[in-house]
Amino acid sequence: xxxxxxxxxxxxxxxxxxxxxxxxxxxxxxxxxxxxxxxxxxxxxxxxxxxxxxxxxxxxxxxxxxxxxxxxxxxxxxxxxxxxxxxxxxxxxxxxxxxxxxxxxxxxxxxxxxxxxxxxxxxxxxxxxxxxxxxxxxxxxxxxxxxxxxxxxxxxxxxxxxxxxxxxxxxxxxxxxxxxxxxxxxxxxxxxxxxxxxxxxxxxxxxxxxxxxxxxxxxxxxxxxxxxxxxxxxxxxxxxxxxxxxxxxxxxxxxxxxxxxx
Length: 262
Known about the structure:
The chain is of the alpha/beta class. The chain has helices at 18-29, 41-48, 69-81, 105-133, 154-174, 192-205, 209-218, 228-239; strands at 9-13, 33-38, 60-63, 87-90, 136-143, 179-186, 250-253. The longest helix is centred in the middle third of the chain and has 29 residues, at 105-133.
């Protein structure tokens, strides 16, 4: 099975490094024209030079800070004034770790804008042209904590669950328009985000970082962390015509770490 996304444009959030960059890289290899989106212009410029152009693509990037929702709105409105996309990957940096006693109203509001409002606003701007073409792909990078909340990630648990629930409702509303909406429940992948969380856990528990990593891997049946490229392969499939009949899902991608069946 060969996935071809030639002639399609993909807007990928948080794509200057980590999982987001891996997604952008694989989509470009499949022939898509990619628009990177993150806050660090230097890293975006570097990432763009690493994307395949074998199909004559002309990649680009958008500088935006997902932590500033009002500014992100303005940037997205300006972009969609004269651009259309076929594939939208909603992915942002995560909020700070912490339990229910360490977070207040402002923290929840900021996390709501970061993880929920940004995705909803960008999606709503992308949808009119998708509906007109009767084709589109909305893919949300979420977390396995939607199914099994982590006490130390209360902000992420709460807002990512809201996004996945919204995505299910959206999938029903746009299915007749040839648009699919799916979410990926991300497990433990070898990224700087995970490394930073492990460092925080090490500080909190007094364990060595390597011990924290060892304990995480012990709970993953496949016996290792995921590779960002493996994540990107699932996104490429969801973005392709092979996934025309797949919508409204929340797919765990965690090496078998989730305990529950649903």
